[in-house]
Design a protein that fits this description.
Layout (H helix, E strand, L loop, with lengths): L6 H33 L6 H7 L2 H34 L7 E6 L5 H15 L2 E2 L4 E8 L5 H10 L5 E5 H9 L6 H4 L2 H7 L3 E5 L19 E7 L17 E5 L6 H11 L5
Helix pairs in contact: 2-3
Length: 268
Amino acid sequence: MHMLHTPGDDAQNAQPNDMQSALTSDEENRAVHDLAAQAAPLPRSRWHMFVSLQGSQRWRYFREQLALRTAAVLAALAVVIFLAVQLLTPKASPQLYVAIINADASDSSVSQWQNAIAEAIGLQNGRNGGVFIDANFDLSEGGLTKLQTLLRNAQIDVIIAPRDAFVTLAGYGYLTDLTQTLTVSQHALLKDAMVKFPGFDDSHEDDLDYDGSGKGAEEAFGISLAHAEHWDSSLIGSDSEDLVGLAQDSRHLAQSRQFIDYLDISSE
């Protein structure tokens, strides 16, 4: 018996073979693509390209492709180095720091006096390793806190103040006994101009409630500026007597002594 053969039977029989061919074709395409990708040359860096060139071609390539980038990198590196040096290099502190208490002076007059002192004692003019006159210590407006902070860090060398403020600062223990800190010749010359004040009594350190301000022994903490040739009393402008003293823990005793000599103080 012969079975009838219809066109649909051919289509059904051919369909699996066509699908297999399609799958095989896709796999082949992927394989070819992978091989092509592996065979493709890797992109070369600008530096490798520069090295591979010769003579004038290398110079031209550098100018066109590398010069601006190199300049930008060097500029950025220079900025980083400059900032690092600025941050890591400490600025020189003043070699003579003079604090004027309760001053009533213009910035220009203070600056002129500062320049005169620097020239006279052979130091630079300015706080960066030179002479610095600071007239911003108003005790009624936070100046005491600033003074205490600077004294605690041993930055102030000389203190000039009107008598009432000087008495207070001496009582706090902020000034030295000039018979101990001035030279023998200075003491002999200035002894008649020296003024004694009560100091700070630190004999009760264990008693937290005890205030030793102005309860210590009387010592020569100040020198009157009434007859100082190079002191301008208008810098403070008070009616009372102005005095000068050397700060406790000063790191620049030699310069402080030079400053005392510069004032040219007499007892008459």
